[in-house]
C-alpha cells in the first residue's frame, strides 16, 4: 500500500512500543464518545483539535493519528466503534478547517479483534494552517506554534530530500544472501517481529528497502546499503569507514571497511573491541574494572556515525585513535535543530529508514536513548563526557580514555548498592558537577551542559533520599554538596567543614541584617528567615547561642526558653 508521509515509515508495526512521538499520536476516542460518527454540533471541538493535529503533522514530516488507543497505558478502547459511513464526513470536516485543505488518508487497523481508525496525514511541500490562522508543527510528542522567524527554515527543510529514501534505477540489485542475513538478525532480535515477511516484496516494502515510483519498484538508498549486491553498492563508493590507530612511537596502523552497512559495522566493531584495555581499581569496599573504551560506548558511537552520516556527501567516516582519546568523524553537519550542546536529549534523524533497521536488529537503541547510554557509561566510570565539534564538512565526537574522577566512580557504585540500579544520566551529571565544583545552587546546576532542566529537582531528591547529596543553606541560597557520609579522605572532610562554615557565616550575616530593621528575633522567626523546617529548631538554638558567645547578640529573659528573643548586643 502506497504511503503518503515523507518518512514512509513502516506501517503500524511496533506501534505500542513507540508511543506518541513526532510522527504518531494516539487518541482513546473523540469527545469521550464511543464512536466518532456524531453530529457536527457534538463534534466541533474534536474536529478543531484534529485539524490542529493535521496541520502540525503536515508541516513536519507527515504522520499518523491512531483513534482507539490510550497512549500512557497503551491499551485498546474496546468500546470504540469504527463507523465507516461517517468517516468521509470526518475527513470533509478536517478539509474545511485547514488551509490549504489537508485530505486525511483513512485506514482500518484490526488489533485483537478491535477495528481501530488510523488517519494518515500526508507530508506537504508547503506550510499549512488552520482556518483560524494557526501555524503549528509537531515537536516530539506534542504540537507547538511556529514562530515567524522559523517559517523560512521550515520551508527550506520541506524542500530537502531524505536521502535514505532516494530511489535508484537499478536492475537485479538485491543480494539474496544479504536479505537472508538481515531477516535472520531481525529474527534473533525479536522472533515475532512484524518486519518478518514471507514475501520478499512485502519485506522490502515494510522496511522501505524499495518503493514504487511510476508503477516501477525501485531500490532505495537504504535497500542498497543493507541488501544490495556488490555491483549495486558501487553507487556508494564513500559508504566507508577508515580507522587509523596511532601509536606513541609515531607509527600507525590503518584499516578500511566499505559496502554493506551491517558487514561494515561488524568488522569495525570487532577490531575496536579487540583493542580494549582494562585496569583494576579499588574504592574502599568496592572493586571495579575500568576499560579505556567500553563496548557500549564504542558500539553506540559507531552506529551513530553510520546511521546519521550524510550519504549524499563524497566523504567517508573516519575514526582516529590515539593513546589518550578516540574520535569519530561523520560526514555532514548536525541535522536541523541539533547542536553540540543539545545532542544528548534532542533527536532529528537524518536517515530515519536506516536507523529503523539498526533498531530492528538491535544494533541501535530506541530514539534518544543511545547517547543516554554513552553518557551514563562514561560518567559512571569517572570519565569526561563526549566532546562534540562541528567542522565545515563534518561532525566529530571525541571520547577520552582516562579516568578524571575516582570520586564519581565511588559515588556511582554507592548509588547502585543502595538502589540496585545505575544512576540516571541527570543524576550523574549533577554528581559530576558537585565533585568538580564542591557545591552548586539550583541555578548553577541548570547551566550545566547537557542537563535536562526539567529533571533536576527529581534527580536531586533521589540523591538526597539516598544520602549521597545533602542541602546546606536556605532559600535561593541553598547549595547542594556531597553528603558527609562520603567524605572518606582528610581532604574531603576539610572541604566539607569549610563549606559548612561558609554557610553558617552566611546565616549569621542574614540574622544581623534582619536585626538592623527589626529589634528582636526568636527561633521561629530565624527559621522563617533562613527557610529552614521545624526539625532544624535545635540547630537554630545552637546558632543563636553561638552568636551570643561571640558577642554578636544578647538574650532577653523569657519564661519559656524556647521562645527566647535575641537582639544585637549594644556597644
Strand order of the biggest β-sheet:
14-13-17-18-20-19
Low-confidence stretches: 1-11, 31-44
Mean pLDDT: 82
End-to-end separation: 91 Å
Strand portion: 15-25%
Bulk shape: globular
Rg over C-alpha atoms, rounded to the nearest angstrom? 30 Å
User: What's the helical proportion of residues?
Assistant: 25-40%
Describe the structure in your own words:
This protein has 571 residues and is of the alpha+beta class. 37% of the residues lie in helices and 19% in strands. The strands form 9 sheets. The chain has a 6-stranded mixed sheet with strand order 14-13-17-18-20-19, with helices on one face. It is globular and about 100 Å long. The N and C termini lie far apart (91 Å). The model is unreliable at 1-11 and 31-44 (pLDDT under 50).
Short description:
This protein has 571 residues and is an alpha+beta fold.
Task: Give structural attributes.
four-stranded mixed β-sheet, 18 helices, 571 residues, alpha+beta
What topology does this entry show?
Blueprint: H1 15-18, E1 24-27, H2 40-58, E2 63-67, E3 69-70, E4 75-76, H3 84-96, E5 98-99, E6 105-111, E7 114-121, E8 129-130, E9 136-139, E10 142-145, H4 151-158, H5 176-189, H6 200-206, E11 210-213, E12 216-219, H7 221-227, E13 240-246, E14 252-258, H8 261-274, E15 278-283, E16 286-291, H9 295-308, E17 317-321, E18 325-331, H10 352-360, H11 370-380, E19 387-390, E20 394-400, H12 406-419, H13 425-437, H14 442-446, H15 456-465, E21 469-472, E22 479-482, H16 490-517, H17 523-530, H18 537-549, E23 553-555, E24 566-568
Amino acid at each position: 500500500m502506497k504511503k503518503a508521509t515523507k518518512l514512509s515509515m513502516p506501517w503500524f508495526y511496533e506501534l505500542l512500543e513507540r508511543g506518541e512521538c513526532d510522527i504518531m499520536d494516539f487518541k482513546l476516542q473523540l469527545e469521550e464518545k464511543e464512536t466518532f460518527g456524531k453530529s457536527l454540533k457534538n463534534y466541533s471541538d474534536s474536529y478543531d483539535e484534529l485539524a490542529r493535529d493535521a496541520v502540525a503533522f503536515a508541516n513536519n514530516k507527515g504522520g499518523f493519528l491512531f483513534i482507539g488507543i490510550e497512549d500512557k497505558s497503551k491499551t485498546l478502547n474496546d468500546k470504540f466503534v469504527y463507523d465507516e459511513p461517517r468517516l468521509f464526513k470526518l475527513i470533509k470536516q478536517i478539509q474545511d478547517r485547514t488551509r490549504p485543505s489537508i485530505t486525511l488518508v483513512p485506514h482500518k487497523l484490526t488489533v485483537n479483534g478491535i477495528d481501530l481508525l488510523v488517519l494518515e496525514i500526508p507530508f506537504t511541500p508547503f506550510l499549512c494552517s488552520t482556518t483560524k490562522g494557526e501555524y503549528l508543527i509537531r515537536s516530539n510528542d506534542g504540537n507547538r506554534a511556529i514562530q515567524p522567524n522559523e517559517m523560512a527554515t521550515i520551508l527550506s527543510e520541506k524542500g530537502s530530500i531524505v536521502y535514505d529514501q532516494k530511489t535508484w534505477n537499478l536492475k537485479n540489485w538485491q543480494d539474496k544472501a544479504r536479505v537472508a542475513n538481515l531477516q535472520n538478525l531481525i529474527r534473533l532480535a525479536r522472533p515475532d517481529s512484524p518486519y518478518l515477511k514471507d514475501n520478499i516484496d512485502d519485506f522490502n516494502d515494510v522496511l522501505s528497502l524499495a518503493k514504487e515510483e511510476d508503477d516501477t519498484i525501485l531500490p532505495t538508498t537504504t535497500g542498497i546499503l543493507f541488501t544490495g549486491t556488490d555491483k549495486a553498492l558501487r553507487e556508494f563508493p564513500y559508504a566507508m569507514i577508515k580507522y587509523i590507530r596511532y601509536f606513541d612511537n609515531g607509527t600507525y596502523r590503518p584499516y578500511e571497511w566499505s559496502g554493506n552497512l551491517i558487514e561494515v559495522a561488524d568488522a569495525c566493531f570487532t577490531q575496536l573491541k579487540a583493542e580494549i584495555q582494562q585496569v583494576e581499581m579499588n574504592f574502599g569496599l568496592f572493586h571495579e574494572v575500568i576499560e579505556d573504551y567500553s563496548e557500549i560506548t564504542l558500539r553506540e558511537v559507531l552506529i551513530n556515525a553510520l546511521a546519521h552520516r550524510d550519504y549524499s556527501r563524497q566523504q567517508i567516516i573516519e575514526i582516529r585513535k590515539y593513546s589518550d582519546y578516540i574520535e569519530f568523524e561523520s560526514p555532514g553537519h548536525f541535522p536541523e535543530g541539533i547542536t553540540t550542546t543539545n545532542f544528548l536529549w534532542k533527536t532529528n534523524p537524518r536517515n530515519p529508514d536506516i536507523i529503523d533497521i539498526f533498531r530492528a536488529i538491535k544494533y541501535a537503541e530506541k530514539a534518544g536513548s543511545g547517547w543516554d547510554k554513552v553518557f551514563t557509561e562514561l560518567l559512571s566510570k569517572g570519565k569526561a563526557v563526549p566532546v562534540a565539534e562541528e567542522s565545515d564538512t563534518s561532525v566529530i565526537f571525541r571520547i577520552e580514555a582516562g579516568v578524571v574522577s575516582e570520586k564519581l566512580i565511588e559515588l556511582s557504585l554507592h548509588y547502585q548498592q543502595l538502589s540496585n540500579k545505575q544512576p540516571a544520566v541527570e543524576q550523574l551529571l549533577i554528581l559530576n558537577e558537585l565533585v568538580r565544583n564542591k557545591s552548586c545552587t539550583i541555578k548553577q546546576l541548570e547551566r550545566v551542559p547537557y542537563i535536562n532542566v526539567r529533571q533536576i529537582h527529581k534527580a536531586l531528591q533521589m540523591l538526597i533520599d539516598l544520602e549521597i547529596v545533602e542541602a546546606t543553606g536556605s532559600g535561593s541560597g541553598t547549595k547542594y554538596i556531597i553528603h558527609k557520609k562520603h567524605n572518606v579522605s582528610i581532604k574531603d572532610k576539610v572541604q566539607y567543614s569549610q563549606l559548612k562554615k561558609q554557610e553558617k557565616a552566611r546565616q549569621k550575616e542574614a540574622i544581623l541584617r534582619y536585626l538592623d530593621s527589626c529589634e528582636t528575633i526568636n527561633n521561629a522567626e530565624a527559621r522563617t528567615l533562613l527557610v529552614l523546617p521545624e526539625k532544624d529548631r535545635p540547630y537554630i538554638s545552637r546558632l543563636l547561642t553561638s552568636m551570643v558567645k561571640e558577642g554578636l547578640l544578647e538574650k532577653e529573659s523569657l519564661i519559656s526558653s524556647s521562645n527566647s528573643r535575641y537582639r544585637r548586643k549594644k556597644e
